[in-house]
Amino acid sequence: MGTDAFQPVQGMSDFEAPEVCLWRALEASAREVFERYGYEELRTPVVEPLGIYLHSLGETSDVVTKEMYNFEDRGGRRLALRPEGTAGVIRCLAGKGAEGLQARVYYLGPMFRCERTQKGRKRQFHQAGVEATGAPNPRVDAECIALQVALLEAMGLKGARVRLNTQGAPHERKTVADGLRAALEPVREQLCEDCARRIDQNVLRVLDCKQESCRKIVAEIPAPVTFMREESRSYFDKVRTLLEALGLDAEQDAKLVRGLDYYAHTVWELTHDALGAQNAIAGGGRYEITFEGKTVPGVGFAVGMERVIDALRAEGVRDEDHAPSGGVWLISLGESALDANMELACRLRRAGIRCGMELEPKSMKAQMRKAGRRRANHAVIRGEDELREGTAVLKDLSTGEQRTVKDERLFEVGNLREVFEWET
Ligand code: HAM
Predict the structure, then answer these.
(1) CATH topology for 2-169+228-319?
(2) Residue 198 known to bind ligand
(3) What DSSP element (H or E) covers 371?
(4) DSSP assignment of 281-300, as one string?
(5) Site residues for ligand 1, CB cut-off 6 Å
(6) Interval 114-171: pLDDT, tens
(7) Predicted TM-score (pTM) above 0.85
């Protein structure tokens, strides 16, 4: 077997310490912020019926046509690994009647898209997101954006920018599409092959094309808002006024479109300049999704955790800064010290003190190195001499200062913290 046998599936990752420590810290701050804003956690399965995605994300969206991990199970059911969180959440809420139409839920977890892998594009990636269901209300949209900004701040990210647009009411979709089609038809030949096809299938997506030639054309045509009615414009104006009142900077981008079809009215993306081509850290918007004849309106967003981490690293955050630290490392010189320290470790841990030790005989140097790597505050060193004299050497690992203490002090569980905090 080649070394590839030890690698995860392409586009997916193993997460080890200390990287995983940064992940845990970010997940903890996401939960804290979501709950501060009154959202409750909802965990839906990673596998859902394929139909819910075909139906809600749009049959012509890239996610559905090119990126789904779908399969038939042993019973011939057509299933998919979730490519995003919203559809599954709404599937669950739609079944709950009135309660599901007034929900505020959040989720954290892996999503799967079989995209061409490149920097910032994974096949298993992770999102932290929220959904707030209920009739369209610009205050909920504005609060949702404020929550998202608060979340990124709590995660320690500084340089994210909000770009904002409207897709108009669902019943305006056709008018907007017709307007854009009329503007693009005369220049069809100059568009890339994909966009020429998009004119017929999903014309809004032309606005999102990254090809330079298409971007030039898109810059010249009227923005979708031009084809919308007054109600939609004033809904959008209200969202912007509220954001301004909340002191949030949101740049209007009249050509911003989102890759999923369920959006209506407000849409937004958060980008970070340090990220290169895949610079969207988060995206969201208002939507309407219909399941089994029940239409659920809502608004929400999802933050891409890998991209937040890339941006944090670009801003100088280090994984190690989030690794667990503190407590004590027991250093044993000789077999008898190993046995005696095992007993001490057991007591310390029972008393709630973070405590580690090697269970194999190792050199003093190797054990001290490990204590440093595990970021212990103190080391307790015991060898034959200390055991005989009933003492231990207690070392403060940040200052290097050490002193000999009577070992019964270490065993007096009530007294341990004091012993270890002797320095302060
Ligand atoms: P989305 O824009 O498709 O929206 O994804 C949200 C975020 O997930 C993106 O901004 C990006 O940071 C991250 N992301 C997406 N694909 C990948 C990938 N292949 N690799 C790494 N990160 C990725 C949604 O998923 C909507 N469900 C958001 C939403 C919730 N709208 C309303 N409610």
Answers:
(1) BirA Bifunctional Protein; domain 2 (3.30.930)
(2) no
(3) helix 364-373
(4) EEEEEEEEEEETTEEEEEEE
(5) 84-86, 113, 115, 121-122, 125, 127, 129, 131, 259, 280-285, 287, 300-302, 304, 306-307
(6) 999 999 999 999 999 999 999 999 999 999 999 999 999 999 999 899 999 999 999 9
(7) yes
